[in-house]
Fold these 2 entries.
Entry 1:
Amino acid sequence: MTMVSVTVDGVSYSDEVEPRLLLVQYLRERLGKVGTVIGCDTSNCGACTVLLDGTSVKSCSVLAVQADGADVVTIEGLAAEDGTLHPVQAAFHEKHALQCGFCTPGMIMQTIDLLAEDPEPDEAAVRLGLEGNLCRCTGYQNIVRAVQDAAQRLRATAAADTPKTVAAKADTAGGVR
Ligand code: FES
Ligand code: FES
């Protein structure tokens, strides 16, 4: 057995695990994070995608011990405490980007990584960014729309935050009043 210390959705955990335990199994079976789902178990479908230190990974292709010391975010860590959806979740909901919903946790986590890299992706970039995530229901059209809508929401949030940040910095520096 090997000791693993990891932060998942803002909570710290330390556990003894078998070295062969997959991260997805650790999340679901030890921590009860069943929002992260297993579609194929062979790194093909992307349903199990989570963020590992900010980068999307297929958690069925990562060992739990490889996450030692890391910060993991799952679909369950996105909404605010009052239940307000993350902008990407809200966009998927409003653009009807799901049917059975099985692929959705992975799609959303992959989208967060994609939009961090490219805040204004065109359709081709969205399709390329999500090529490792499979959906058997939607035909992808609404998923692409949702990702572009999410991008717009995140850009609007960033733009709204910027003046406050600048003002706060200026204030701290004793500058502009
Ligand atoms: S369950 Fe991990 S990629 Fe399909
Ligand atoms: S909504 Fe069913 S697999 Fe994507």
Entry 2:
Amino acid sequence: MTQPIQLDIAIVGGGVSGCYSAWRLQQDRGHNSNIALFEYSNRIGGRLYSRKLPGLPNVVAELGGMRYIPGSHLMVKNLVEALKLPTKEFPMGSLLPIEPGGKAAGADNNLFYLRGQYFRYRDFAEHPDRIPYNLNWSERGYGPENMQVKVMNLICPGFADMSLQQQMQVKVFGKEIWRYGFWDLLYKVLSNEGYQFMKDAGGYEANVANANAVTQLPATEYKDDTVFLTLKDGFQSLPLTLAQQFADMPGQLAPSERIGMNQRLTEIRYNTDSDYRYSLIFQATETNSAGKTTDKVDCEPVEVLAKQIILGMPRRALELIASPFFDDPWLKQNLKSVLIQSAFKMFLAYEKPWWRSLGLVAGRSVTDLPIRQTYYMGTECEQPGGESTLHSLLMASYNDIGTVPFWKGLEAGKAFTGYVPQSLSCAPEQVVLKHEFQITEDMVATAHQQVTTLHNQQQLPPPYSAVYQEWGDDPYGGGWHEWKANYRLDQIMYRMRHPVADQEIYIVGEAYSYEQGWVEGALNTAESMLEQFFGLCKPAWLLQDPVFAKILQDNPDYNFLPTACPAPDLHSSSNSCVCGDCSEVLNEVTEFAYEGINNVER
Ligand SMILES: Cc1cc2nc3c(=O)[nH]c(=O)nc-3n(C[C@H](O)[C@H](O)[C@H](O)COP(=O)(O)OP(=O)(O)OC[C@H]3O[C@@H](n4cnc5c(N)ncnc54)[C@H](O)[C@@H]3O)c2cc1C
């Protein structure tokens, strides 16, 4: 019988948090420690999954995460720069000028089709009468995110500028905001039409889901005027580069033994009689040509011994692992502190960007049809180094929670085969990607028809290729997570990194982070855990960022999570509001109100 592999650190999960942890630890102690990374599928990247459709070698179909905010996602921004990964803009509207020599059209002309009415982004402010919601008099004159700001100004002026610690203390209508579901809280201050408007026009149902109000209330980063960047070769190139460098670095363990693909961790056992405290039991998996991963039959589980374990995976994946570790009462209670939200993306490839004739170049259109959000991802010939064709990619649908079942209902049936455009040389059977989720004719026809309606067209040329991804299957359970109401998320996100004091098992990733739904959250929990429990120093590539340097100057103990560790108990005599310069905050609130009033009564 072969001896189990012996590791100092076993990292499980080949998503961005696991790959980052492996990369950092190998740099720090790979010379004298055996560190290995294990991944369930045959793919590094997890919820970063970048695919390319035929005829579009320079326009990436991002089936998971697609963009970051360089102004606030400091870990992603600086890591991407340190790794020298090429970036490109991810505009939320047209970068072309409306008039020759004028300013860029931007997001103002982005299209909305709600309740059977067409209007543009600018109409929220310029023509509130065109917005087909029976809003209260005081609710008019704002777009969905600004309506959220207005609600925040009503509930607690200056809330977005407070620290999480301060926000946790704010009481409204007799109880702390963190004890509210966001929907429950909105219900107290908005008409039902106002809520429906925010839900429909915001594009993401997750933005107004009944998750913890303390994180939901100040979150407006999905606005059409946010500045985003994306990676030229796809967001997946971030974890792929980290994993590659992890494997290539010099170190004690042979490079070929550092990454174990197609290994599903099924169980963690405690060993009391060995230097290696843990036995990790792995079931070999296999991934078929379409990308579907299942357990390999007739394959004995393999044991790996480790002194320390890092689990870089989401809630559902953690729940699938058998171990006394998960019997810990605190962990049992708090693993369920986050909601798992479903998410779905569908891409259609067209021979030509027909949307350009409608003045739509980039950014998104929003509708209450089940496709919900359509993004104009680009045309091949306009990409740096792109081929000279007009092949274009549309993210025809980006939807979540309530609309995902609509598309799941169309999954069974005849597979979509597409067609080969004259401008493309490829075998007919290759024009539609082999993919874990094989797209059906019904799905494509239904989405294409909704896209046609969204753009107010009679008929549009059909797509030649298509692909979709739904994130509900194991081991993910959903696309992203949101803190549940009534949980002390400020304390949980700290403790979750090292949930059981006498065990050396650590949990990182997006699920229990402060920036849920973002890669930034996954990296922040990983870096925070590595510094606090593995003694790593802050990375040089981050320290040289002036914004980060300022954060450190203001708070030398900053550890990538929003409050000091351990988070203090809340005092029962909570302030209703804590603001720095209160009169300035009040002036801002009033100015913001005037903006809405002027929009309606101009
Ligand atoms: C549709 C969608 C859109 C998004 N958009 C954005 C965006 O625009 N910008 C952004 O920054 N973020 C976005 N995100 C979020 C971002 O993708 C995630 O925050 C991030 O990728 C999560 O990384 P992670 O390491 O925490 O987990 P994951 O990426 O989920 O990685 C977990 C890994 O663990 C593996 N695993 C699970 N169980 C086991 C097991 N038992 N044994 C071995 N391996 C296992 C999985 O196969 C997976 O590879 C989006 C996500 C989705 C789904």
